[in-house]
Amino acid sequence: MKSLPFQKRTLALLGVIIPLLMLFIYVGLRSGPLAPVAVTVSAVESREITPALFGIGTVEARYTYKIGPTFAGRIKSLDVHAGDLVKAGQVLGEMEPVDLDDRVRAQGSAFKRAEATLREVQARQIYAKTTAARYEKIFAAHLTSEEVVTAKREELQIADAALSAAREELARVGSERDALVSQRNNLRLITPVDGIVAVRYSDPGTTIVAGQAVVEVIDHKSLWINVRFDQNSATGLTGELPARIVLRSRSGLILKGRVLRVEPRADAVTEEMLAKVVFDAIPQPIPPLGELAEVAVDLPVLPAAPLIPNAAIRRDGDVVGVWQIVEGDLQLTPVTLGASDLDGYVQVREGLKRGDQVVTYSEKALTARSRVHVVDHIPGVSR
User: Fold this and answer.
1) Cα distance between residue 145 and residue 164, in whole Å
2) What's the fold here for domain 100-183?
3) Which of 18, 132, 152, 228 lies at 20 to 30 Å from 303 by C-alpha?
């Protein structure tokens, strides 16, 4: 009979412990480490995909003209600045020759001396020719020796050679004089095309050597984007494909363009393909050279195939897979991926079929032992 109070106390204690234990288990299963993980799922679709390439490039000018003198001189005036619009044939500045006038006068004197020398040599050649002809007649009449006639013939040959050399010297000196005169008459710096002054390298008063650029003019109608694309995704990239361009200074504004050409040489270091993308219409205001641009190129449409969101892909070392829900259980299914588009979808070549359920987002990292609870939306995750 003494055991009754003890049994009552035991029962009472169990009556308290068991509910607490059940509550603890319930809480653990609902919100503790053993609680199911909230996930969102997507059904595998089967439809066509328009794969796209994304690349980064810089604005460049297809045609650039560096304008400068063909001789050494000093800049006398320069009337344009960077950013100015110029017209074909417009005078941008003028050169002041350092010693060109003295060189022209010196070359003119040399030309006159060459002319005088030529006249003197011509007179000697005429005399030698006349003398040789006279002695030929005398020799034919047997009134002189053959040695004398031979000497006169040699004198004529020497005179002919001297005349030829004098003529060549006169032509050389004349060409040099004409070149200096042409330089003297071309002191103006003239742009050959309509364009924009991109760079002004020097200022008035600066001494410039022959061939040194004073001003750089670009043909603003020839702007293009020099773009780099990942080689792994560049299959099908070719000329004339449509492109969407977003300049860094105009984020949110999509400009239309097209691929002009794919360069025949790739970058072996960065493993990138190079391409030139042109605008359908040059944006206004004209973007500066060197500005970064984001370029998306739509590749040809691919046939229907299973598609999943990029967010569903999981990588574990070299294994690429997705968390798939099969009869309520969670399993990591390896997949082989294909092309992707810019809408966030990627083709699945192997591993899944249409209608399969895959986890898109999870509240926390999943394992093969995780229990999951499917929800429509996870707070903090964009739809």
Assistant:
1) 30
2) Helix Hairpins (1.10.287)
3) 228
Contact call for residues 78 and 90 (beta carbons, < 8 A) = no
Q: Residue type at 257?
A: G
Residue 219, token pair as written in the block: 């043909």
Phi, psi (degrees; rounded to nearest 5) at 262: -105, 125
pLDDT score of 2:
47
Neighbouring-strand partners of residue 258: 242, 278
Per DSSP, the chain holds a count of helices (H) and strands (E) of 3, 24
Architecture of 53-61+221-301 per CATH? Beta Barrel (2.40)
Direct distance between the N- and C-terminal alpha carbons of the chain, in angstroms, rounded to an integer: 69
Lowest-confidence region among 16-20, 28-32, 159-163: 28-32
Domain definitions of the chain by residue range: 36-48+302-377, 53-61+221-301, 65-98+187-218, 100-183
Asked if pLDDT for residue 352 goes beyond 60, the answer is yes
Please give the CATH number for the structural domain made up of 65-98+187-218: 2.40.50.100
Q: List Cα–Cα distances, 365 to 52, 141, 319, in angstroms.
A: 30, 126, 17
**Per-residue model confidence as pLDDT tens digits over 264-276:** 988 888 889 899 9
- Which stretches does DSSP call E strand in 132-173? none
Q: Which amino acid does the sequence have at 127?
A: Y
Q: What are the tokens at 10?
A: 């035991």
Mean pLDDT of 155-174: 89
Is it true that the peptide bond before 285 is cis, omega within 30 degrees of 0? yes
The region, left, alpha or beta by phi > 0 then psi within -120 to 50, assigned to residue 330 is beta
Range 117-143 burial, b when 16+ CB lie within 10 A, else e? bbeebeebbeebbeebeebeeebeeee
Between 3.30.450.30, 2.40.420.20, 3.80.10.10, 3.40.50.10860, what CATH number should domain 36-48+302-377 receive? 2.40.420.20
Q: What is the pLDDT of residue 8?
A: 61
CA dist 206 to 73, 90, 198, Å? Answer: 8, 21, 19
Residues present in the chain in total:
383
Angle between helices 146-185 and 100-140 (to 10 degrees): 160
